[in-house]
Amino acid sequence: MAAVPGGRRSGLAAGARFFCTAGRGLEPFLMREVRSRLAATQVEYISGKVFFTTCSDLNMLKKLKSAERLFLLIKKQLPFNVSSVSKGKIFNEMQRLTNDDPESWLNAISIWKNLLELDAKKVKLSQKNANPLKRKVGENDIIAKKLKTERMQEIQEKKECQLEKQIEEETLEQGNFTTKRDKSQEELQNGGAEAVDTHNQNDLTFRVSCRCSGAIAKTFTAQEVGRVIGIALMKQFGWKADLRNPNLEIFIHLSDIYSVVGIPVFRVPLASRAYIKTAGLRSTVAWAMASLAEIKAGAVVLDPMCGLGTILLEAAKEWPDVYYVGADVSDSQLLGACDNLKAAGLKDKIELLKVSVIGQSPKAIEIKTVTNGT
Amino acid sequence: MKLLTHNLLSSHVRGVGPRGFPLRLQATEVRISPVEFNPDFVARMIPKVEWAALLEAADTLHLVEVPKEPIQGYEHDERFLRKMHHVLLEVDVLEGTLQCPESGRLFPISRGIPNMLLSDEETET
Q1: Could you list the residue ranges that cross the membrane (chain B) (predicted)?
Q2: Backbone φ and ψ of A76, nearest 5°
């Protein structure tokens, strides 16, 4: 990838530890990506999650293409043993997740705040209204949520990333995107940055999202565990629970392999792209396939069964100095692809053809073929 | 359809073989729109261009200032690259036809997308 290793730094000397969820089969791509894009160290893959350490800031983290969601790690430890012990005893053990080592929680939260503050300062500096493409984040999120197969206990949340407001304990209006953004900009301009700095730990509102799999899922429901942990957190740190619009979200996954606790870094999953209007193939898979073609500058790249053009969109975003051509036999797919190209601003980079690749192929020199057609 | 794409297309009507290139271009609607100039990218495309086909197509569209051939040291000649950039990437045929030079078969271009689909009988085995 063309990125400078490490990219912009978050100011954390030692780097912070994160983990990402990844679709099955994409883990090697993700491991490669965090190493090259984020200069990540201590990269481990354990059962559906990739753990890594990096100094990169939110802007670089946002660029990850093969990950589903990104979390700041609070805790990773051995799984709970549910074989012969009573339920009550196990609840006690779960409470130890929060009570045994409050430092690790507070540490992670301060790193999380630092990341957001850095980002908020950049927002203040840029001083521009949200660009039109950002509106699409809302729409895409709806599509992404429908496609997602996560079994988390989540209430439908608002789609935008309310960075500046997370620290204040206000009830947020469910207004439209631009109004909120303007309001936040105002706050920042009025010294909102200071408000962020002087945040009081006790004003934090939170919500616990819990997922159980394996043996533990047979004994406990996600709600039970979520409740136990939630109560323990309230007792330990004095935070208030807010199920609708919390400042802080805590994500817990209890499985046969590990118990993991983290803070989701972005409200919107990484897999939901601002530049894809109508998803065909899942964006992470499309990017991974494009990466396999080893596209170099100056190449001509053909997707002979492009459908809605998802692979070409991912490729064009990552490797821009290339001539992309998409072919399909279906009018409706080509129309959708055309739409997508317009929405992504990539009409100039990607050409479309109505062609059947069976018995017909464009005359071309050095074509690299990427496809997902069946 | 940009002229760079036209430069890559040939007909595969049965029996036509290599004589299916280049396709004869006829345009009823053309749009010229600015595209960000990337000299490095254009320079890399130059070796791939079939010049006779390009000149023929450019002529049909009455384009002016089309270089007749790559000049020495074109990689660093911005004027040359800008002209090529314009011809290859900024001219978009929205409506028209492409004709197979050998069989005469017409392929329509609609909304900028050429339709190269052949029926079963027409397809090469």
Answers
A1: none
A2: -135, 125
